[in-house]
Amino acid sequence: MSAADERRDGRTGQLRGESPRTGSNRASARPAREGVPHVARPGAGRPPRTTRPAAPAAPQRDVHVPDGVRLQKVLATAGLGSRRGCEILIEAGRVTVDGALVRELGVRVDPQRAVIHVDGMRIQLDTSLITIALNKPLGVVSTMHDPEGRPSLAQFVANRSERLFHVGRLDAETEGLLLLTNDGELANRLAHPSHAVPKTYLAHLDGRVPGSIANRLLKGVQLEDGLAKVDDFRVVDLSPQASLVEIVLHEGRNRIVRRIFDELGFPVERLVRTQIGPIKLGDLRTGHTRVLGQVELGTLMARVGM
Question: Catalytic: 171?
Fold first, then answer.
């Protein structure tokens, strides 16, 4: 190949992002152009900007703790997968430490202080902290121990050594998803009105609701303690004498779902909470618990700004 041909090939490789031009000569050169970005020629010119960022080293130096733990080991310990799988995550540019992208496997961090995200989700590094989903049965009060001797939440986590407390509450007549945790910061954020975490309920109603009920709910229903608005509403099923509806709201006033439908003339016969923020009840059986995994926990923490 002549020197002119080499220059021409180099030019076409650098112009890959431009719109293709017509002409048989351009078309015939396309196969050669495909291989250009894969050829490493040190010192032969600036590499295309679409390749791996040239300077992740500065943020890596900022987060590196010489006497810390290797990042891939920290991720594996947190349950993200095998150590090799975590190395792949790092090399793929999917991991940040304290806001800095990390691609090198030699980085060490302090697990007690580092804030690590994978694919934008916060990873809980403190293995002593745990969050549990419970499908609360009917008739159980939302307290760990009831002075009146009624069924309480403690019986469902009696085999756990952690000191757990419930996030929010469900009245005794309401079933479904309840979160228990020993993470005080997470619990406070979930409960704080500023985060407006939505809760989803399935309500079995006495009577057939009219089509106009959705607008009424979205505009707000006046209760004795103020206007109550829902975030979303849909009819799941209808029969001549009953309705099954799904309602989403972020307010936490006492018995608010029941009071809303009482005001509208459709008493709630059964109420089940099916979702809190991104956490779904799913097929968790009544009276059973499950520990939230890193993906679920990460999405929940992201929802409240952690």
Answer: yes
How many structural domains is the chain composed of? 3
User: Which of 135, 117, 133 has the alpha carbon at shortest distance from 125?
Assistant: 117
Asked whether the predicted pLDDT for residue 185 surpasses 60, the reply is yes
Question: DSSP string spanning 168-203?
Answer: S---TTEEEEEEEES-HHHHHHHH-GGG---EEEEE
Any domain includes 159: yes
pLDDT(48) > 50:
no
91 token code pair:
């090399």
Q: Which of 126, 171, 225, 232 is catalytic?
A: 171
Q: What pLDDT, on the 0 to 100 scale, is given for residue 160?
A: 92
- In sequence order, what E strands does 126-284 have? 131-136, 165-167, 174-181, 199-206, 221-223, 226-228, 232-239, 242-249, 268-276, 279-280
24-38, 97-111, 184-198, range with the lowest pLDDT: 24-38
Q: Is 254 helix (H, G, I), strand (E, B) or coil?
A: coil
Can you say whether residue 248 is alpha, beta or left, with left for phi > 0 and alpha for psi between -120 and 50 degrees?
beta
Residue ranges making up the domain that contains 162: 131-194+279-303
Per the CB < 8 A criterion, the answer to whether 264 and 90 are in contact is no
Within this chain, do residues 174 and 209 fall inside the same structural domain, yes or no?
no
Contacts 24+ apart (CB under 8 A), 27-36: 33/9, 36/9, 36/10, 36/12
Q: Give the per-residue pLDDT at 37.
A: 36
292: closest CA among 150, 140, 177, 146?
A: 177
